[in-house]
Amino acid sequence: MSERQSSMQVRDLMIRSVISVRPETSLREAISILVDNRFAALPVVDGDGLVVGVLSESNALAVGPDQQDASVGSTMSTPAEVISPGSDVSTAAVRMLNGRLRSLPVVEQGLLIGIVARRDLLRVLINDDVTIAAKIRSLLDDYAGSRRQWTIASNEGKIEICGGFSSKDEQRIVAALARTVPGVRHVDVLPTAVAPAVGI
């Protein structure tokens, strides 16, 4: 990977809105989720949000048609292959290649906070807007933590950051941080809800 990608972290690229299933979910329901959303795998979490396994396409294909009423827990791979949000993107790429994995759940203190897929890594190789958005995400995570639900869109250096902000001051701080990233030409901050205050 180039210097640009190797300096990036998993938190910069991960998808934060993750669909997961529970061990007691029926295999039939889980397969429907995989097919309908074109997922390669589903994280399996317990009642506390801790990742306890992964249900992959391979797991599902290994089960016969007469076993689809079985639970996900009886079919999933354990222990789950996971990665932390602070891991380098290059580390994620090596683990995916060596383990022949198409995605990795991202966990913080055992809790599922996102997922990163091979296609997310590939997008960085071809899209400068993705790189800009990822660098902004990294700055915002350093400022407010990786669990804040802000969405960042970049189009030829024009940035939109949407989500919940604790105050007008926080909106100004977020916009100022975004403007420090090379390639950013304009920043719009669009509040969609009120979020609890976050200390700097």
UniProtKB/TrEMBL annotation:
<feature type="domain" description="CBS">
    <location>
        <begin position="14"/>
        <end position="70"/>
    </location>
</feature>
<protein>
    <submittedName>
        <fullName>CBS domain-containing protein</fullName>
    </submittedName>
</protein>
<dbReference type="InterPro" id="IPR051257">
    <property type="entry name" value="Diverse_CBS-Domain"/>
</dbReference>
<dbReference type="InterPro" id="IPR046342">
    <property type="entry name" value="CBS_dom_sf"/>
</dbReference>
<feature type="domain" description="CBS">
    <location>
        <begin position="76"/>
        <end position="131"/>
    </location>
</feature>
<dbReference type="InterPro" id="IPR000644">
    <property type="entry name" value="CBS_dom"/>
</dbReference>
<keyword id="KW-0129">CBS domain</keyword>
<dbReference type="Pfam" id="PF00571">
    <property type="entry name" value="CBS"/>
</dbReference>
